[in-house]
Specification:
Length: 233
């Protein structure tokens, strides 16, 4: 939606902050106070998005064994209240949380990048999970990012054919095995720079596996954009 239309709509129907419920008088449903309290990501590894104690290009792990994507950008660190906000969005169908977080992510992304990918691809959900949830949270985020960056999104570029267990509950070795072969893709990405969109990047194995599939389909470059990145544990 264009900004002026946004403003007119919000003047007619003033929004409330998704966190404290006070009127926002903004074109986004979060008040300035609550937004400033969110755990914005400050210093992060350019390649994997992991929070670093100070400004440096790459983390030690990416220097030694870089992932198959060239860049990972997260607006936030995954710590309170991000866990509750994302759970409200994903599991309680409170899409207003998703819209607020996606809009802030788009704004932060645009602020930090001069060039965007050619196309956005949301991490696909397995059809069983999609049936239960009713929507793919990554596609919801991707649609906001696509509109704000004037870059197309291909919602069905790839499919998830393996109903994987929760990655964060598994050991490193088990995670790799769990996600291997999870995605199939028939879309031709010849020479395209592709931006993967996800809600939270925890271990990077999922986005790394999808990146490998996209590169096999011809992608010249793959980057990852997510709402929040889990800090080193
Ligand atoms: Zn508030
Ligand atoms: Zn890194």
């Amino acid at each position: 939606m264009t900004n002026w239309l946004d403003r007119i709509l919000y003047n007619l129907l003033p929004g409330r902050c998704v966190l404290c419920l006070s009127p926002t008088k903004r074109s986004i449903d979060i008040c300035i106070g609550c937004e400033l309290d969110l755990p914005f990501s400050h210093y992060a590894c350019w390649q994997c998005g992991l929070t670093l104690p100070e400004s440096q290009e790459l983390c030690g792990h990416c220097l030694v064994s870089p992932p198959p994507f060239s860049h990972c950008f997260a607006a936030f660190e995954y710590r309170p209240p991000m866990d509750k906000m994302i759970a409200q969005f994903k599991n309680s169908q409170q899409l207003a949380f998703g819209r607020v977080l996606s809009k802030i992510l788009a704004r932060q992304y645009i602020k930090h990048h001069l060039r965007y990918p050619d196309v956005w691809v949301p991490v696909p959900l397995h059809s069983e999970r999609l049936k239960i949830r009713g929507f793919n949270q990554a596609l919801e985020i991707a649609q906001v990012i696509a509109a704000e960056t004037a870059t197309p999104v291909i919602g069905r570029a790839c499919r998830r054919i393996k109903a994987t267990d929760e990655q964060k509950l598994l050991s490193r070795h088990a995670r790799k095995h769990n996600i291997s072969g999870a995605f199939v893709c028939e879309t031709d990405f010849q020479n395209a720079r592709v931006g993967i969109i996800d809600d939270v990047v925890t271990t990077t194995e999922t986005v790394a596996e999808l990146s490998r599939v996209l590169v096999k389909q011809g992608a010249a470059d793959v980057q990852v954009v997510c709402i929040a990145r889990t800090p080193h544990q």
